[in-house]
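Q: Second attempt. The first request was missing the SMILES, so the protein and 2-phosphoglycolic acid are both included now.
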Amino acid sequence: MHAILQGKRLIAFDLDGTLIDSVPDLAIAVQRSLSDVGLPAPSEEFVRDWVGNGAQVLVERALTWALSEAPGQVLQTTAYEAFMRHYGAAPNALTRLYPGVRTALHDLHKAGYPLVLITNKPERFIAPILSHFDLLSLFTHCIGGDTLAEKKPSPLPLLHVAQQLDIPPSASVMVGDSRHDIAAGKAAGFTTVALPYGYNHGEPIEHSQPDLIISSLLALTE
Ligand SMILES: O=C(O)COP(=O)(O)O
Ligand SMILES: [Mg+2]
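A: Got both inputs this time. The predicted holo structure:
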């Protein structure tokens, strides 16, 4: 095990950009939603930079790009509902696990760590995606962006699971790909570990000053 796990009793993982490369399916759902409301569809490269603050913000960023101004409430609601429908219909068509994820999660689980998932993705998509990859049973808790009153970068979801498991934040680790994961982790008093291969609004994750940057989850278990 990596030295950073010494004395740690809880490991929390982000989902998109950390465990799964989900942008190809997210982009298709965004493109279909914008087409539904008669707007031009953005390329996958744009969508990659818009992921990280949950589905409402993703749709709002896409609409703002297409309109060159913030969308009205009716259009936002219509496009959001279309996105939830399109993404829900095909969340796993092109989505892949990043290298090393399956092995590392199984090894950490076997080593006795409670694993929890804390994503800004709407909760309803978590189980279908983790089940598709046969990983759902490894996680004791799964928190989505709409599960609690606040989502990352708020520390609330992290503190919520630590409290549920009765593990102090100082014995907990947050593993993620974006500045929202690192900000939430720091604010919660967790140790923070970052992956540089995910989605961070085009910004290097070094800027968030995580405690550790690793190129693959396997670095945690080797
Ligand atoms: O849905 C998002 O915007 C990002 O989800 P994540 O928190 O799993 O990276
Ligand atoms: Mg992420």
